[in-house]
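Thread: Putative plant transposon protein domain-containing protein, structure

OP (GT): Posting the sequence first so everyone is looking at the same thing. Length is 298 residues per the record. Can we get the structure tokens written out before standup tomorrow? I want them in the notebook alongside the other entries.
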Amino acid sequence: SKRKPILPGRVYDFKDLINTDNDLTQYTNPLGWTNLFNITETHYPNLISAFYFNVVISAEQNSIVSELKGVKVRVTEQLLGKLLDVPTTGHKLYGESWFSMAGVDKNTFMEEIFEPGTNLIKSPPSSKLKHIFKMFHNMCLHAIFPRKGSKDKVTDNDMMIVYHMFNKIQLSLPFVMLKHMISTIENESRKLTLPYGMFLTRVFNDAEVSFEGEKGKNSSTTFSLKNVGRMKFLGEIEDHTISDQGQKRKREEFEPNNNLEMLAEVVTTQEDHQETVLPVSASNEKGKEVIDEDLLLS
């Protein structure tokens, strides 16, 4: 039986960060991304699970179509742009090929975003990112490429977002999100989460899918100045790195009361709470279960 968690997304309290040296709107405003990070919607776990369960990817890989309660739901880059109020202009990139397509040298870029002296040969952990890039990485972790598991990993896609945000270069976020949905659908790993819980509510609304009888949840987390404070505190006390090279961590290598690991969890997530297995409203012949994260507001 395969289980994939649903993550609703995260809200960024930009007003709390304005007039500080952590003002993220100086990066999101020029790209037209600010509204996306302020979206708050009720999300519907059973509808989300059914949507992904029934989905078909178009041959051209430029749309996905699902059926919910007899209603066809088609998602395109243009639709996401319209519903999320995000531009579809700019680079259309996704995956490791973005470096060559955007003319960016990966090693040189990594030298710019990680703290001096960081070993770049082995994938360095996010705790070694310079402070502003840690905040961008948080946005990747919880909003753009939401995921569970290790929060240390900085993926090629994370670096793509970081590059475009910091340099204020237009990137079509709706294109990126559609590609990420397709990638999630094609990947059978149970570690992957079903992304964009809150965003999909707007898609379902637009397609006039009935919410009657559905159990809605309001469980997104909020990122504010207190998260930044924790982030900085962790950076100050850290004297070594805990990295995840994609292999299973051997728990015995770390002491049970490892403060650093505990703080890393506090900083990057407030949402690893008990999981609740929910019934899937779609036909379930493949034996898939879907977990909804019962997230708590910070």
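GT: Both are above now. Quick notes for whoever picks this up: The mean pLDDT is 80. The chain is about 40% helix and 10% strand.
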